[in-house]
Structure prediction request, 78 residues.
Amino acid sequence: MSFKETKIVTMGGIKMMARKAHCPNFNHGRTNVPVRNCPVCGEVVNSKISQKVCSEGKHAKGRREQNAYCIDCGAQLT
Prediction:
């Protein structure tokens, strides 16, 4: 299952999106996140940082660091 998978649940007659799985990365709970995207699930964790256009070399470096997603543009690396 992907961390991005969601389902619609109904609570008290209100439809809401609920995540099936929680990301283990601590960036989701921080107030001053130094990166735009989470390297584990790819979700935007700091929208104040502008999205960058990355090179293949930067993505190769991210794969060597065993990131599943690019922290700058959110592209899937694996």
In short: Residues 5-9, 15-20 have pLDDT under 50 and may be disordered. Residues 56-64 form the longest helix (9 residues).
